[in-house]
């Protein structure tokens, strides 16, 4: 566990921070939000990688549970960031999603269909549906937590 | 113009800016409803679809429509509309000033120069290639940087040149495929083409669009959510075909 954290964990944290901040530039988010949204993305991807390492289950279950909890972490963290910076939440949660979203898988579906591997394509299509659905549910749960926090503060 | 007309047009413009720059349907409806209420029309009816917005006032039997043709991602504009709406709610600006500021926001150009975008595309490509696949040999890193940057540059220039949809994604993917193919030939097979491509297409792929499609559907927007999904599937097809055209050679 500690070994994983020191070797792979920290590397993944740094990679996700850079990827999120970079995607933030591509989406033209305000400059003063770049750093914070990078950290939100790093937190989400780190949660996913940690669960992927810890969970003793098949790949599909790991994908579903990992993405669900990572999406909840991103949703709650970007809710706090939005409250702190007085900015809309999508400035933080859209760039942060970039390591998790099934963009790579959706491209692989089409590529395998075109190159004549329909079986591989269906496998990736299943992953696209699972990941997109689970992230959406994760955001709903995070929204619930955010509203709960609001009521506790008031 | 009468106050009612100004209110209708300001609300529509605010909604259009949000929708054209990547906000979800629920947020657009919510913001438009707030603006109408704060302008003194709490009964205004607002109907938002992915391709058009309607605002109507039941008591005076007036309504206005605005069609939405272009959809992109520019979160700076979303933030500015949000800030303006908040200032309007706190009576810091009048309705006319609000309308002027919105028109300025709509005309504004992206804040990051092209050099920043190119560097950002390279960073996104390389970091995600390592995070997803773990491959990081010298040839992989160099090719991925080159393919990610030039692929995004092609995408950017084609979408600036004309408004032919999905051609820009196709062009970007084709360039990525060609660069990967050249590198594969030059290194005589000592690189990982699949890893390079998965990293280099990340700035182009519609992952966020797919997720937003599901989110919009789950909040009850049963027309706009699937419409977003269709758009995302078409751009995934454009990218997949662009890559597949060159992948027959290795």
Automatic annotation (TrEMBL), chain A:
Compartment(s) of residence: Cell membrane
Residue spans crossing the bilayer: 6-29, 36-55, 61-82, 89-110, 122-145
Keywords on record: Cell inner membrane, Cell membrane, Membrane, Transmembrane, Transmembrane helix
Membrane topology term: Multi-pass membrane protein
InterPro entries the record matches: ThrE_2, ThrE_Dicarb/AminoAcid_Exp
One GO BP annotation of this record: succinate transport
Coiled coil: none
Occurrences of domain Threonine/Serine exporter ThrE (ranges): 12-144
GO cellular component: plasma membrane
Protein name in UniProt: Threonine/serine exporter
From TrEMBL, chain B:
Annotated compartments: Cell membrane
UniProt keyword annotations, A-Z: Cell membrane, Membrane, Transmembrane, Transmembrane helix
Pfam families per record: ThrE
GO molecular function, one term: transmembrane transporter activity
Principal cellular location given in the protein's record: membrane
Coiled coil regions, renumbered to chain: none
Gene Ontology BP terms: succinate transport
Bilayer topology annotation: Multi-pass membrane protein
A single Gene Ontology CC term: plasma membrane
Entry-linked InterPro entries: ThrE-like_N, ThrE_Dicarb/AminoAcid_Exp
Domain Threonine/serine exporter-like N-terminal: residue ranges: 11-247
Entry's transmembrane regions: 114-132, 139-158, 164-184, 196-214, 229-249
Similarity-based family: Belongs to the ThrE exporter (TC 2.A.79) family.
Name the record gives this protein: Threonine/serine exporter
Originating species: Lactiplantibacillus garii
């Amino acid at each position: 566990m500690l070994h994983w954290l020191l070797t792979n964990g920290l590397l993944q944290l740094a990679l996700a921070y850079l990827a999120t901040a970079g995607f933030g530039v591509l989406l033209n988010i305000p400059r003063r939000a770049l750093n914070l949204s990078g950290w939100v993305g790093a937190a989400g991807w780190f949660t996913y990688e940690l669960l992927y390492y810890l969970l003793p289950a098949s790949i599909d279950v790991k994908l579903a549970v990992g993405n669900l909890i990572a999406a909840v972490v991103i949703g709650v963290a970007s809710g706090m960031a939005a409250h702190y910076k007085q900015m809309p939440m999508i400035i933080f949660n859209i760039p942060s999603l970039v390591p998790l979203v099934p963009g790579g898988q959706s491209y692989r579906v089409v590529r395998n269909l075109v190159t004549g591997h329909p079986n591989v394509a269906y496998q990736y299509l299943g992953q696209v549906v699972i990941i997109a659905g689970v992230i959406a549910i994760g955001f709903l749960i995070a929204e619930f937590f955010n509203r709960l926090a609001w009521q506790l503060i008031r | 113009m009468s106050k009612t007309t100004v209110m209708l047009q300001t609300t529509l413009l605010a909604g259009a800016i949000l929708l054209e720059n990547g906000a979800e349907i629920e947020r657009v409806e919510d913001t438009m409803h707030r603006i109408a209420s704060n302008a003194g029309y709490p009964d205004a009816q607002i109907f938002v679809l992915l391709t058009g917005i309607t605002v109507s006032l039941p008591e005076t039997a007036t309504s206005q429509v605005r069609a939405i043709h272009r959809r992109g991602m520019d979160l700076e504009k979303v933030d500015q509309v949000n800030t303006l709406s908040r200032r309007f709610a706190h009576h810091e600006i009048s309705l006319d000033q609000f309308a002027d500021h919105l028109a300025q926001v709509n005309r504004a150009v992206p804040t990051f120069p092209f050099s920043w975008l190119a560097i950002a595309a390279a960073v996104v490509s390389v970091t995600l290639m390592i995070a997803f696949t773990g491959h990081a040999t010298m040839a992989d890193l160099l090719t991925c940087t080159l393919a990610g940057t030039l692929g995004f540059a092609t995408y950017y220039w084609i979408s600036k040149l004309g408004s032919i949809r999905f051609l820009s994604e196709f062009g970007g993917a084709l360039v990525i495929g060609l660069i990967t193919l050249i590198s594969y030939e030059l290194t005589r097979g000592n690189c990982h083409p699949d890893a390079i491509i998965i990293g280099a297409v990340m700035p182009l792929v519609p992952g966020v669009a797919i997720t937003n499609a599901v989110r919009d559907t789950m909040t009850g927007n049963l027309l706009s959510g699937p419409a977003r999904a269709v758009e995302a599937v078409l751009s995934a097809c454009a990218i997949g075909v662009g890559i597949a055209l060159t992948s027959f050679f290795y």
